[in-house]
Specification:
The complex is a heterodimer of chains A (109) and B (127). Chain A is mainly β. Chain A has no helices and 10 strands. Chain B is built from no helices and 11 strands. Classes of the chains: A mainly beta (109), B mainly beta (127). Chains A and B meet through β8 and β9 of A and β10 of B.
Chain lengths: 109, 127
């Protein structure tokens, strides 16, 4: 994947977990980042768009931010139902296409 | 309410051409700032963007697969069709279509994000 994510992350209920997405100047460094949540056997769901905007219905304990060529998704007050795969995505201006991160599996201990 | 549903063959043979149809409702593909995209996801892998058809009839393709892809629309049927030629076992994946929205005060293909996905359809390539 053009965007790099740690394969897994875990936390206990109530904890704050931060997932990072590492890119380059041709994608995250100059373009906005979107985040998706995916449960097994289901389609990805948009969680964050334009770096830090939440679609209607997404709980405010999910937040996005970006610094340089690194984007992050924070889950505050981790809940058992947050156990899922999380993917970042952005436009890559060198490739002229949408690229995705490798995904991070969040486990709630 | 926006809904999208993919349809097509579950099994194709190597070298064959795959044709997938996305039937949507709840929006118009003629509305400024709207697109319908195709993406796929192999088991255990990240999603991969394939192509997008925009409201103004412009279209873009993944640079990796451009030579094999064609995306078209049928306005009357509210459908977007993707064809992929010369299928190979590595193309085995779940294929999704997704509604795309352009960001506020932005222009160009870079501005779109995928905000509503279909349920996906699993396509297996095998002889």
């Amino acid at each position: 994947s053009v965007l790099t994510q740690a394969p897994s992350q875990s936390g206990t209920p109530g904890q704050r977990v931060t997932i990072f997405c590492f890119g380059s100047t041709s994608n995250i460094g100059t373009e906005t980042v979107n985040w998706f949540q995916q449960f097994p056997g289901t389609a990805p769901k948009l969680l964050i768009y334009s770096d830090n905007q939440r679609p209607s219905g997404v709980p405010d304990r999910f937040s996005g931010s970006k610094s340089g060529t690194t984007a992050s998704l924070a889950i505050s007050g981790l809940q058992s139902e947050d156990e899922a795969d999380y993917f970042c995505a952005a436009w890559d201006d060198s490739l002229k296409g949408h690229v995705f991160g490798s995904g991070t599996k969040v486990t709630v201990l | 309410q926006i809904t999208l549903k993919e349809s097509g063959p579950m099994l194709v043979k190597p070298t064959q051409t795959l044709t997938l149809t996305c039937t949507f409702s709840g929006f118009s593909l003629s509305t400024d700032g709207v697109g319908v995209a195709w993406l796929r996801q192999s088991p255990g892998k990240a999603p991969e963007w394939l192509a997008i058809f925009y409201w103004d009839d412009d279209r873009r393709y993944s640079p990796y697969l451009k030579s094999r892809l064609t995306i078209t629309k049928d306005t009357s049927k509210k459908q977007v069709v993707l064809t992929m030629t010369n299928m190979n076992p590595v193309d085995t994946a779940t294929y999704y279509c997704a509604h795309s929205t352009r960001r506020f005060r932005c222009s160009g293909g870079r501005c779109y994000y995928f905000d509503s996905w279909g349920q996906g359809t699993l396509v297996t390539v095998s002889s």
